Amino acid sequence: MSLPRCLTADFFSSLADSVAKAGDGFFQEVHDCCSAVKILCLQQSCVAENKYLVEVLDGSVPVKYKHTCLALVPPTADGDKQLVGKVISFNQYKITPTKSRYLIILTKITIVPGDYRHLTCQLGPALVYHPGLSIQQPGQTPPSAMCVANDSGYNECRQPQAAGVAAAGPIRKHEESLAQRKAHGAPYPATTSKPVVKTADAGSAAQISISDLTIYTPKWIIRARVSHKSQIRKFNNQWGEGQLFSVDLCDADGEIRATFFGEAVTKWYYFLEEGQVYSFSGGQLKPANKKFNNLSHSCEISMDENAQIQLDQNDISIPALRCTFTPISQIEGLEVGAIIDVIGIIVKTRDTKLVQHKGSGSNIEKRDVMLCDNSGASIWLTLWSKKIQHFQNNELDGHPLVAFKGVKVGDWQGRRLDTQGSTKITVDPVIAEAAEIRQWWTTTGCQMRFDAGRQTPEVHIEDIVSIRQITKAANQALQFKSLGDNGITFTTRGIVEVIKESTFSWPACLECHRKMVNDQGQWTCTRCGARSKPKHTYILSLKIADDTGHLWASAANTVGAEIMNWVPAEELLSLFEGGEVNADGKNFMNVFEEARLSEFIFKIRVTSEKYMDELRIKYRIAKALRMGKYMDSAINCRIKDINALLE
């Protein structure tokens, strides 16, 4: 077995010599490499976006040592985040001491082509951490054979490891495997010793703020308020049945999520209450899984039954609600699927209705409310299931001020918001943002007219690009497979040259908004089975152009209605079928002729789709703003800017 020839020999040994000779200033500096250093990645663990803890080895022979580094990896064109078995090349690094060893932070990184995963399986278990880069702790046992008694009464001999550091690494397969089994509530095998229960020493653990917690914090105590507690969730995995629940904790400086597994659920679930202040210690800090955790903290806490939690006195310095509110006018520019906090006045409501759940097929309740804030914009927000019960009868009709923490940005007939299971709803919160919005509503907002379906987004002139730039960027993104699930959004100015008249609408079910089919005069929904008359909505195919080029795009629902001068799709369909004229004296062709050659500011979302096993680009108009409205909006914005400068 031989290593890749490109690996840099004796890098860690040379670095260990430099650490031994250098002073404290060595750890403050960023070091540039004379030539690119190349190392092989054995294991990886994601810490944050584009930040990875990696176990690596250099090209030293014989192969004995590995080391832990923090790699700041730039995103790749194909979105590949796999580092194991790859050669990492870097030109700059910084070294910083941690509890057990020196951590090397790698920057200016590139990934060398090649796959050496077949070597990692053979090399990983046989390597120990480089002794020259370990930090000797006071009173640490020197490396020698140690015998300890396990629970079965037999002596278990452990072989020496390099300065006792191999077992203390941040990536520990065996120990993590045991911890995961315990966390999931499954029993340990009879042949495996139970984990050692560490008794927290209150004298050695310092109380720190949540924002100061990192995965390297050895002992800690936090004093925090429970802002949200989830329901108990049961699951099955390879270790058997398990259960868990989570709480969101906040203090004056930050917030973090703590998850309880196994027996900890039985012990702590009814002890912890939303709104109460507790002292927490004894949990395991690990990188936050952003797939399930939408809090801003880079870490999360895993708690078992040995965690120490005490009810504390209430502290007014710890907020009951900690949010980072997004103005409604800025939601249009956010990605679909983003989790945000919003606050505003409920100005409109719709009746509660039952819809069929996509996964289970069961019926669940939903209710739409329109939310506005002092940015002058409004948006529809859907309350799902139990979230509807947060409001008393007729409370929504009184224009309440409501804060929503953790709602999801969706895209159905324009941007909208949806509550999640973890969404926190607070009516009339006592916070500064609430006072500002309440004053705005009393003086100005109550006299305004809101219509989220026809809300015109703010467009900045510097964001506008030509159609040629859009098509060029789209082709490059398709080539490098970097469009992603949500695509890329551009803003352009163009004229509607052609609108296809053959297909301009589709029949939507009133209950679930899916397409209905007409079977011998009887309309039937293909999903929920409803047999009511459908609502026809726009799905236009149009050609837009500027002086640099053109493209074909689709426009659906309210965007299509904006382009068609707000003539309802059902009215246009009746003109097509009956050959009549509407109240304005216009026939089917007149409506299309009026829509053509109109100038708009378009917000276009570029995505990809498979057609005949081949990827192709798809353009969809997310928003269309007539130039006249845009000019009025731009002039008003400039006037506000000038007035602000004169004040």
From TrEMBL:
Gene Ontology MF terms: DNA binding; zinc ion binding
Domain of life of the organism encoding this protein: Eukaryota
Similarity-based family: Belongs to the replication factor A protein 1 family.
Keyword line: DNA replication, DNA-binding, Metal-binding, Nucleus, Zinc, Zinc-finger
UniProt lineage: Eukaryota, Sar, Alveolata, Apicomplexa, Aconoidasida
Compartments, as annotated in UniProt: Nucleus
All copies of domain Replication protein A OB, residue ranges: 328-428
Cellular component, GO, one term: nucleus
InterPro entries: Euk_RPA1_DBD_C (IPR047192), NA-bd_OB-fold (IPR012340), Rep_factor-A_C (IPR013955), REPA_OB_2 (IPR031657), Rfa1 (IPR004591)
Protein name: Replication protein A subunit
Organism, as annotated: Babesia ovata
The keyword DNA-binding is annotated on this UniProt entry: yes
Major location (coarse): nucleus
Any single biological process term in GO: DNA replication
Domain Replication factor A C-terminal per the UniProt entry, residue ranges: 490-624
The keyword Protein biosynthesis is assigned to this record: no
